[in-house]
Amino acid sequence: MSNKKLPENLHLDTLAVRAAVDKSQYGENSEALYLTSSFVQPDAATAARRFANEEEGYIYSRFTNPTVTSMEQRLAAMEGTEACIGTSSGMAAILLMCMGLLKSGDHVICSQSVFGSTIKLIGSEFGKFGVESTFVSQTDVAEWRAAIKPNTRLLFAETPTNPLTEICDIRALADIAHAAGALLAVDNCFCSPALQQPVKLGADLIIHSGTKYLDGQGRVIAGAICGTRQLIDDKLVPIMRSAGMTLSAFNAWVVLKGLETLSIRMQAQSANALALATWLEAQPGVARVYYPGLESHPQYALAMRQQTINGQGCGGAVLSFDVNGSDVESARKNAFHVIDSTQVCSITANLGDTKTTITHPATTSHGRLSEAQRQAAGIGQGLIRVAAGLEHIDDLKADLRRGLDGLGRLK
Question: For the structural domain made of 12-259, what CATH number should be given?
Fold first, then answer.
């Protein structure tokens, strides 16, 4: 059957529901789910050409599957990049990127405020194989510039960070990287392309944990890397073919469907997060709120330039706050009390769900870091992270008030 060719310059919301591989001969309106490990070849000569990358065609679902390709095409279109490669998880995406771009003797500069597992992977695991790393302040451009070495090959940041929502200046970091002959990779997990397209600010590679907002309902584990066709095909696809950090067709299909509602979810959840952050700033049990949509945030102006939805600055759907505590032990006790008092929020370290989630970063997402690493990242024992969902805002306030109001009675 014939397939309509999409016109140029479509809006993101249109691409989110239309970008995909061509329909099959059956003309399905919803993209097909291809649950197959391999694909039958018409003859031995065609099989030989396809395995040798001389002819396009699906071969084996470890590295070629139409459902995964649909997800990759859609996400690339939304991020404004030439290509995308799906992976089994967000951490698998970072692993694939590092394996494809780095070798022994190379140097990586990374924000010290990134996700705890990212710090472990780059700083510890790749260190075993001779890759050098330097961790710097997320927000101090001068530190990034000073950390450049002749062997620097990659700068890596996530913005906003998990969990303190620090914002890096993507354009400034891209300029530093490119002046040194290095690449800039940006983890866009918190914002998604609905709020931020780092490639437009000079980033070379975009990392995603599709587990979060791309899926949007906490159903599957997935990851992706977006970038130029040359980087994806020449540097990353060969590693995927050999090592197999493979995104399953089913998980790709779930993310593909999630992308269709990404913008409207992000808009609604970001509105809830802003309302919640504003309310928390006025609560006596709260020492500080971290949310890019608040004017009190140190990088508020930068966030409003880099993160937009429908032309308006947007803080995203994740916020954190410190509860009061006279010392480390009392701060942790108070944080646990607030978390354990919730009856609506889900106590889980995942985020990006339509259900609001709440967690204690120091003992969950960043629990494997040393205390020195946590202190460098600004993660104290009184810190609580909330990823706002789609519940009614009054119910979310009441859920947190239950624990906050009881802090004065704790001894």
Answer: 3.40.640.10
User: Does 45 have pLDDT greater than 90?
Assistant: yes
Q: Which one, of 210, 114, 209, lies nearest residue 163 by Cα? A: 114
Instruction: Give the closest residue to 223 by CA, choosing from 71, 32, 79.
Output: 71
**114-123, 218-227, 396-405: range with lowest mean pLDDT:** 114-123
| Cα diameter, the chain | 77
Distance, CA of 383 to CA of 290 (rounded, Å): 10
Question: What DSSP string describes 46-111?
Answer: HHHHHHTTSS----BTTT--HHHHHHHHHHHHHHT-SEEEEESSHHHHHHHHHHHH--TT-EEEEE
Could you give the residue range(s) of every CATH 3.40.640.10 domain in the chain?
Answer: 12-259
Q: Give, to the nearest 10 degrees, the angle between helix 393-404 and helix 262-281.
A: 40
What span, in angstroms and rounded, lies between the C-alpha atoms of 136 and 205? 20
Mean pLDDT, range 385-389, rounded to an integer: 98
Which of 298, 265, 257 minimizes the C-alpha distance to 387? 265
DSSP string, 219-255: ----EEEEE-HHIIIIIIHHHHHHH--PPPHHHHHHH
According to DSSP, the β-strands at 83-87 and 132-136 are: unpaired
DSSP letter assigned to residue 38: B
Q: What are phi and psi of 166, to 5 degrees?
A: -75, 145
